[in-house]
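Following up on my earlier thread - several people asked me to post the actual chain instead of describing it. Fair enough. Here it is, all 226 residues.
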Amino acid sequence: MDIAKKIEEAENTALKDCDNLPVPLNTCWTFWIDKTERGASAAEYEASLQKVYTVSTVQTFWSVYNNIPDVQELQKKYSYHLMRGDRKPLWEDESNRKGGSWHFKSNKKDTPKVWKELLLAAIGEQFVDYVCKGDDVCGISVTVRDKDDIIQVWNSDATAVPNDIVRKIYKLLPGVQFTAEFYRAHYTHRSYEAEKELFTHPVYMVLRFSAIFIVCTKHNCEILLY
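Reply from S.P.:
Thanks for posting it. Predicted structure:
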C-alpha cells in the first residue's frame, strides 16, 4: 500500500505547525503500519513494519492522523500501531518483553471511533490512573480482519493485571460493545521467539465474561468480580 505521498504531506504540515506554538506531548509516540501474515517469523514480521512518523506535539499527531488513510480504508490483515517512544510493535522488542496487551474484537462500524478515542487517550496520558504503579500503557494497535477488527492496548508489565483499563475504555466509549476481550502476556504466544522472562507471578491470560474476570497463571486460575 503506497502512503508515501500522504506521509510527505503530513511531514510538511507538521513543520508548519511547529511554528505556531506547538503543544508538546508528555512523551513522543510513533505511528507504524504492517501487514500480518500467519506463520511469519519475528524477523519476517519486523521486516514488514513500516515506520510512518514520530510525533512529539499535538499538532504533529493530527497532521499524521489526518493525512494517512483512514482505518476503514486499510486492506485486510493490515495494522496501524501507535507506540510510545521509538519502541516497535513487536513482542520481542526489548521494551515489550515483560508486557502484554488487552485484545478487543470490535464491530467494523465502531472501529474508527474506538481507534481514534484510544489514540487520544494514550497521547493524553488518560490511562495513568488506571494502571498499577510502575506500569504504563505503551501502545495502541488496530488490525483489519474479515469480520470483527482487533484492537490492542499494550502495557509494559504483564505481572500487573490492568483490569481497570477495561473500565476506562468503556468510559471513553459509551455505547460501544466489544464482541470479545481478553488480556495476554506477550511471552505466552506460541510464536514468541525471544527468551521467555521469568515472572514472580506470571500472568498468562485474563478472560472477561460479563462482570467476571478469570485470571490464569501457569499454576491456577482465579475469579475476580468486575
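Strands lie at 24-35, 50-57, 78-84, 100-106, 137-143, 149-155, 180-185, 203-209, 212-217, 221-225. That should answer part of your original question.
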